[in-house]
Amino acid sequence: MKIMKGIARFLGVDGDRSAPPPRYVGLADGLVITETHAEAWYLLGSSNTDLMSEAARDAEQDQASSALARTLAGYDCHLKILWSPLNAEDYRTEAETLFSAGNYGAWADLRVSRLEELELPTRMLLLGVRISERANQAKARGSRGVQDALGIGSTSVSQKELARLDALTRRLGRQLETTPWKAQPATVELLAWMIAREQRRGTPLPAPDEQGMISGAKLAQLTRGRVLPYPDHVRILDQRGETVGWSAVLTMDGFPEEMESPGPGEWLRSVAEITYVPELMDDDEVGDISALPVNPEPSVRFKVLHKRDALKQIDEIRRLAKEQRQSAAKHSAGETAQEIEETEETMTSLSRDMKREDVTLLEDHPRLIVSSDVSLEDLRSRCDAVIGFYGGVGIEVSVAAEEQRELWLEAQPGDMLRVPDLMHTRTVGAFAGSWFWGGASVGDDTGPVIGYLTGSTPGVVRNDLTGGSERGDATTTAFIGRSGRGKTTAMMLSLLDSGFRGSFVLALDFKGDMGGLVSAGQRYGLNAHLIETGSQFAGVADLFTLLSGESAERAQTEVPAQLGIALPQHLRMRGAETPIQSAVNECIAEGDPATWKVIERLRQSPDELTRETGDALYELSLTGLGAPFMGKPVGSSLITPSPGIWVVQVPGITLPSPDDARDDWSVHQRLSVALVHSLLAYGISMAGRKDLRGLRKVVAVPEVHVLTATREGSSFLQYIARVGRALHTALVVDTQDPESLASLTGLVEQMTTVFGFQLTTGEQQDAMAALLDLPKGPHTRQLIQAIGVDVTQEIRHGHCIMRDRRFSSATVQFDVPSVEMLQLLNTTPKADSGSGTGESPVSMSKPEYQEANA
């Protein structure tokens, strides 16, 4: 038998080219069962390798090599990389569980429309392993024709056999789960989709039966399509006999002797990077044509050799090379070909490495399946792009001629190796260096969609500002980068999602450019309000009003402290704090207290110091900074502890530094500190109230360096960050200065997500690298420098590096779902300061919108 196999392989007819297509008899979770054998199928996870450090990459590649050598040795394996189109309509259904406030249906529809426009595919990594040969396979092959003719064929799988196969699948799965691939048994629905998609079956996928299987007629309908083979492609026909797609199988004929990883050696990961320019149609505009992804689908059948078999094969090659060298030395020329000497040395070195380390050989048969739904010419353009891409890295790829049928069948799950001619033998380390599981992956598994990946693999990015508490995790998110790169707009988009999730959102807008958040919230039915400094908003930040419920007792001490901050130094030195406390106590005793009533009581006192204190505070309450926290209200309070968005704009405040003596504070500084004190006290009380523990709460602080410059502000930020998980409160900060942020240990320790935008100085870039969990050095500095510009060195708004809660980092593009939304959230100086009215602050053309979302 071995002699016959050897002759067949020599003649190039090893494998069964003429074998019939696989006949499926059952699908179950993790199992594809045919008449002749059973395969275990696993869904592999992706690793985020784009920004991974060199040491981490080397360690993970070693783990993958070890898994191939130990876990999969001796198995016939089938690796498939598939592309699943994003079903944007699923997000509409998901919105019912994500959102609960405002007109969230329209908000979800807006995002769905944008996702449909982006057409982002999802990469699926699937690994099949042949785990069992069915005992009746020979009988089945011989009697199939007779049974089919008589109509008595049976495709049932006994419960005993199914249980045995399931046990084998789970046992192997437990070993693969601990690898970098984090393998999980593929669901029966996923396996049905994988089989049906090969023939473009448009029928709904069948549901499994009570035992979780798909068999019989349900299984037969998955493969009831027609495929016509041609010399250089196959055509897929629908039920009416019309062509619905064209596919071509490409073979990888030759590889360089050495390939670098990272780099050209990642020949399986890089399939996502292949693009082509489609030919112009009659109705196409020249300006609309751009490079499109080809998305070829690799299908690699491989087998890892046991180490003893690999060593035997290496020794045979080394001995043959040695004999050729000795034979050449005996001739008159006495010269040995350099290739023979190099082969002998290489085999000797490889044999030594295999004996010392966990290395063995692997035989693989790589194919690339290129498909098109447009035309045959479009398919050939795609094939040329694939051939040219790999040719640029030294890999020979060609369209298989006259064997498209055999290679197309060979790529089907449950089939067999049919064309063994182009076999490649390499070490498991070299195959792991292809990084088929590598790419870009970052963000939450569920939650609102905020944008898309811009790394080596496409996909959507999700992030939920309020999800940390539910996971029992930290709750702080940071947006960091220089001005004008889109970080505030990105934060507002995330705050909108939080508002639709039924959260209480308090944004302390020290720069005064977040009014568009209110406009956008009102546009989609959220309870959104804009509060500004000035007499028209007198009393909105009165601590007696803000500190309600369980926090009401705090007002008895917080109000005197706040008025003491605003009080002129000479009155405080004379002991004016005591009359203030007395007036506060009397107002509380009378009921319905308010800060303006405290001031009126002070002004009516017969005591001279008390009257002077009241008059001084009254005059200060008439200023733009004093009116919000101690002025007499002109209407009802706007800030209430209920779901909604409140943007408090306090532009122009001047806070003293921690080193400034209190005696040296100016009037403007005193009022600024007093107003911020009111807002911070409210934020702390809201977070700590027991009756509001079930309410999602978000405190957002743009330009956070305004607060970090003071002791009170730093203490507030670190307090909210540390207790946020327990109190269901998320802290969101925005800053241009990562160095000062890094000094707040309590805040940095609680960061669950970081968005890093462009920075240009080395010190700030190093501080950013530490927060993003990236290695410090010239490469990371260059990455942070380039993240905010496009290929023409123009500003690319919303482009950043995201570090998620798993400490994975990848490049991300925040995506504004519509031109109207971009207008509403505009933060440029051209925007109308009264944007809280709901009117669009500026007009923006579609090209500008596309540029902003580049």
TrEMBL record:
Keywords annotated in UniProt: ATP-binding, Nucleotide-binding
Pfam family, one: AAA_10
GO molecular function: ATP binding
InterPro entries: P-loop_NTPase
Region (Disordered): 323-351, 826-854
Source organism superkingdom: Bacteria
Protein name: ATP-binding protein
Organism: Streptomyces aureoversilis
Organism ancestry: Bacteria, Bacillati, Actinomycetota, Actinomycetes, Kitasatosporales
